[in-house]
């Protein structure tokens, strides 16, 4: 209940509402406070002058923001009425709860009448201290605003639950303890205020004064005040105007401005709005429950961070002590870095705990207030505030949106220490990895069907992976020099297609691309091998291909390794991804990291281990080959299976994309004639094996001499 107290206090005086009225913006004010912040406006801005000129369309006219400035965002502390040259500027003040308000230029005359009955200056304007919307009052003054009976009832129940001593309602500063209550005025007085404001003479002499406790009981037992129409004070609310969203009386429907509006029964709308508020509270209650669980999670994270920090520090000290004197200075630096990370994590989590606690407190206060409002049995009073409460509940629920209940920090320390360098390199010792604040883009994918060469030009196309969630700000395309040399940047930009001109004829180029953003760069894509033309179109000549071109001049060696990214999960890599084996008894497929579409390429595989006579397969495959069956079992692979090989044997694979053939060798001897013909497209070196086999890949090899000699005489 204590968290609801802020909902029950006036934004001007900071005390519990006394005779609260509802402004058109749905906020509440004490009737006396509303009178205190009235500001007089010129005749030209009055409702009467607007209606006379035909510009007035409602009983309450909101002022244009460019004509009236009663609230200033600046730090000057002053507000002025810009459309009234003779009106002096009035310093603004702050209420106890921090809301900026504006007192009247002249103090109100002393009167014993209630604020509602006291005369209101003509052409008065009031500005809501919470949303700062300004409006001009009509002839009814403050009587034109409906009274919030529901809020009064909630405050009474709250004060009774607190069981605190009753305070005087008229003390200006620190309220004194009340000594009497007037049953007719329904006001608690201390002795000084009773003598000053309620003297025992005149009409007041007939009022009955009772002790405060008895007055509290009589107030609680007295019948609930019935809300009356603001336009027809003698009529009670009987219907609900759907268009204006407010209770109305019988005369409003007969002769007032609601005569042509759609109306519904007051009781039915009361039940409907109560149901809507209850449903909205259910969603907010779930959010509050999640927030409480989230706070428990955050507090647990604090403990875990502390425990992980101690464990990490102990490990770090142990590693540093192993290096004795050479690591002593570096040890202090690394410990300081870990402590900084520790404090950073704790600060982030504690800040999130503080933020979430404040938001949960506000949410809980609103929930308790709404639950008390639902208990109210005054349909008219309830409907006056139900729409605003429903909007507030939905708005508060939206504030607990996606990401609010997600930890901003992990409990793990994403750092590891590598103690393997030599002692002379200790001054370069540092943590191997520091987690990036935000992720880098995913690795781009080369679109092989759109990559091609024409004469001495190459066109390459790429794209981001379909499920990538990190945007790339640009791409970097790299090509080697056509002779197996170093890569160099040939394009940097946002486009996903590039044509590179001026390449060497009759050369094999390796191409790769990577993406980048503000955080960093992605890994490189797979390397694509492209072959430029020989300088003329030999396919149009009558002589055979082998008679016109020396095959040795067409060859360019390729360096590559096995690709962990596309391999089956049972494949085990070692030796910089040049050696592979398997953890399963079933055959699993692994591909090379480089694909070939043109040229003549040769590589070898040596058998490091060969147990129990397995059946490994060697050859080439397309990128979408099945990875969980023996190579060659589908139509995406071309392979040889030799059960007679032994440990130490060497298998050679020759892919001639000029002739569109695939040939195999074992221990430098060709295995029969050409194994496969009419081989076209993009192919990757491929191997299938199980746990009984281990092979090592050897690349960058020239074509065997006996094959080139056969080709020259073919």
TrEMBL record:
Gene Ontology MF annotations: zinc ion binding
Every Fibronectin type-III domain range: 440-535
Domain B box-type residue range list: 163-212, 224-266
RING-type domain boundaries: 10-50
B30.2/SPRY domain segment(s): 539-714
Domain COS: 374-432
InterPro entries reported in the protein's UniProt record: B30.2/SPRY, B30.2/SPRY_sf, Bbox_C, ConA-like_dom_sf, COS_domain, E3_ligase_FN3/SPRY, FN3_dom, FN3_sf
Coiled coil segments of this chain: 288-344
Full protein name: Tripartite motif-containing 9
Localization terms from the record: Cytoplasm, Cytoskeleton
Role according to the record: E3 ubiquitin-protein ligase which ubiquitinates itself in cooperation with an E2 enzyme UBE2D2/UBC4 and serves as a targeting signal for proteasomal degradation. May play a role in regulation of neuronal functions. May act as a regulator of synaptic vesicle exocytosis by controlling the availability of SNAP25 for the SNARE complex formation.
Transmembrane segments: none
Alphabetical UniProt keywords: Coiled coil, Cytoplasm, Cytoskeleton, Metal-binding, Repeat, Ubl conjugation pathway, Zinc, Zinc-finger
PROSITE patterns assigned: B302_SPRY, COS, FN3, ZF_BBOX, ZF_RING_1, ZF_RING_2
GO cellular component labels: cytoplasm; cytoskeleton
Pfam assignment, any one: SPRY
């Amino acid at each position: 209940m204590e968290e609801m107290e802020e909902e029950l206090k006036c934004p001007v005086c900071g005390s519990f509402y006394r005779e609260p009225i509802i402004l058109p913006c749905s906020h509440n004010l004490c009737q006396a406070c509303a009178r205190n912040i009235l500001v007089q406006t010129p005749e030209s801005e009055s409702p009467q002058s607007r209606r006379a000129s035909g510009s007035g369309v409602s009983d309450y006219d909101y002022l244009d923001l460019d004509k009236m400035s009663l609230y200033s965002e600046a730090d000057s502390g002053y507000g002025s009425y810009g459309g009234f040259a003779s009106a002096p500027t009035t310093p603004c003040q702050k209420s106890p709860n921090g809301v900026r308000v504006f007192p009247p230029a002249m103090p109100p005359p002393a009167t014993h009448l209630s604020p509602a009955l006291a005369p209101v200056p003509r052409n008065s304007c009031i500005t809501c201290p919470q949303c700062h919307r300004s409006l001009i009052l009509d002839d009814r003054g403050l009587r034109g605003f409906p009274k919030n009976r529901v809020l009064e009832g909630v405050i009474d129940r709250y004060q009774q639950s607190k069981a605190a001593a009753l305070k005087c309602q008229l003390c200006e500063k620190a309220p004194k303890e009340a000594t009497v209550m007037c049953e007719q005025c329904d006001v608690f007085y201390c002795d000084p205020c009773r003598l000053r404001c309620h003297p025992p003479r005149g009409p007041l002499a007939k009022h009955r004064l009772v002790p405060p406790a008895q007055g509290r009981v009589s107030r609680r037992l007295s019948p609930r005040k019935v809300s009356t129409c603001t336009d027809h004070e003698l009529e009670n609310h009987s219907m609900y105007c759907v268009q204006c969203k407010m209770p109305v009386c019988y005369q409003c429907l007969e002769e007032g401005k609601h005569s042509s509006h759609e109306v519904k029964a007051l009781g039915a709308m009361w039940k409907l709005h109560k149901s809507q508020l209850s449903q909205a509270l259910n969603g907010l209650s779930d959010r509050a429950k999640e927030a409480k669980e989230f706070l428990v999670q955050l507090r647990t994270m604090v403990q875990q961070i502390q425990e992980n920090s101690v464990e990490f520090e102990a490990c770090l000290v142990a590693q540093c002590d192993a290096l004795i004197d050479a690591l002593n200075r570096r040890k202090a630096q690394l410990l300081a870095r870990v402590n900084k990370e520790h404090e950073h994590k704790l600060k982030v989590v504690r800040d999130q705990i503080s933020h979430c606690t404040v938001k949960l407190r506000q949410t809980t206060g609103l929930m308790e207030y709404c639950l008390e409002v639902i208990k109210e049995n005054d349909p008219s009073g309830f409907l006056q505030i139900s729409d605003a409460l429903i909007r507030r509940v939905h708005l508060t629920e939206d504030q607990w949106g996606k990401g609010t209940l997600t930890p901003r920090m992990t409990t793990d320390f994403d750092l590891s220490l590598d103690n393997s360098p030599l002692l002379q390199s200790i001054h370069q010792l540092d943590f191997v990895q520091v987690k990036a604040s935000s992720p880098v883009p995913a690795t781009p994918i080369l679109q092989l069907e759109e990559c091609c060469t024409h004469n001495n030009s190459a066109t390459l196309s790429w794209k981001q992976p379909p499920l990538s969630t990190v945007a790339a700000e640009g791409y970097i395309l790299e090509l080697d020099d056509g002779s197996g040399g170093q890569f160099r940047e040939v394009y940097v930009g946002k486009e996903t297609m590039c044509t590179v001109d001026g390449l060497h004829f009759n050369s094999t180029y390796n191409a790769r691309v990577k993406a980048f953003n503000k955080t960093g760069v992605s890994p490189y894509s797979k390397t694509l091998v492209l072959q430029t033309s020989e300088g003329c179109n030999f396919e149009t000549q009558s002589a055979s291909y082998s008679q016109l071109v020396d095959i040795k001049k067409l060859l360019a060696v390729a360096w590559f390794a096995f690709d962990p990214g596309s391999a089956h999960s049972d494949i085990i890599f070692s030796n910089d991804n040049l050696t592979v084996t398997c953890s399963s008894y079933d055959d699993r497929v692994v591909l090379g990291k480089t694909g070939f579409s043109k040229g003549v390429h040769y590589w070898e595989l040596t058998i490091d281990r060969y147990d129990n006579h397995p059946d490994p397969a060697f050859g080439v495959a397309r990128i979408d080959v099945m990875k969980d069956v023996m190579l060659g079992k589908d139509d995406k692979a071309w392979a040889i299976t030799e059960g007679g090989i032994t440990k130490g044997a060497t298998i050679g694979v020759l892919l001639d994309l000029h002739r569109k053939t695939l040939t195999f060798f074992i221990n430098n001897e060709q295995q029969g004639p050409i194994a496969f013909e009419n081989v076209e497209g993009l192919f990757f070196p491929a191997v299938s094996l199980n746990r009984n086999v281990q092979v090592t890949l050897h690349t960058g090899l020239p074509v065997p001499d006996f094959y080139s000699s056969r080709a020259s005489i073919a």
